[in-house]
């Protein structure tokens, strides 16, 4: 049986691709530029999580989780 590693065997690509695109940027409803990334350009299966947000504990290896700081800047990207 092949080993499945979220973010590596994922159909959305590897985590480092999204880390490079998102880290240090803010998620915006409009367009992407040097300081922001458009929410519409995230994969269909994603969620944006602020520090105090409630979240479900279900595991979905193809879901991209974008973790924000209190100021809205991306601080981490995970799958699950």
How does this model look, in words?
- This protein has one helix at 15-22; strands at 26-28, 36-38, 46-49, 64-68, 74-79.
- The protein has a three-stranded mixed beta sheet, covered by helices on one side.
- A hairpin with a 5-residue loop joins strand 4 and strand 5 (74-79).
- The chain is globular and about 35 Å long.
- Helix content is 10%, strand content 26%.
- The protein contains one helix and five strands.
- It is mostly beta strands and 80 residues long.
- The protein has a single domain (15-79), classed as Trypsin Inhibitor V, subunit A (Trypsin Inhibitor V, Chain A, 2-Layer Sandwich).
- Residues 51-80 are annotated as: Disordered.
- Residues 51-74 have a biased composition (Basic and acidic residues).
- This is Proteinase inhibitor I78.
- InterPro entries: Prot_inh_I78 (IPR021719).
- It comes from Penicillium cinerascens.
Summarize the structure.
InterPro entries: Prot_inh_I78. The chain has 80 residues and is mainly beta.
Indicate the CATH topology. Answer: Trypsin Inhibitor V, Chain A
Helical segment count: 1
User: Which word captures the global form?
Assistant: globular
Alpha-beta classification = mainly beta
Portion of residues within helices: 10-25%
Question: What is the CA-atom radius of gyration, in angstroms?
Answer: 13 Å
Please identify, by name, the CATH architecture: 2-Layer Sandwich
Largest sheet: 3 strands, mixed
The number of E-state strands comes to 5
- List unreliable stretches of 5+ residues: 1-10
Count of domains: 1
Residues in β-strands, percent: 25-35%
Order of helices and strands: HEEEEE
Termini separation comes to 21 Å
CATH superfamily, by name, is: Trypsin Inhibitor V, subunit A
The CATH class name reads: Alpha Beta
Mean pLDDT reading:
85
> Taking strands numbered 1, 2, ... along the chain, how are they ordered across the largest sheet?
3-4-5
Protein name: Proteinase inhibitor I78
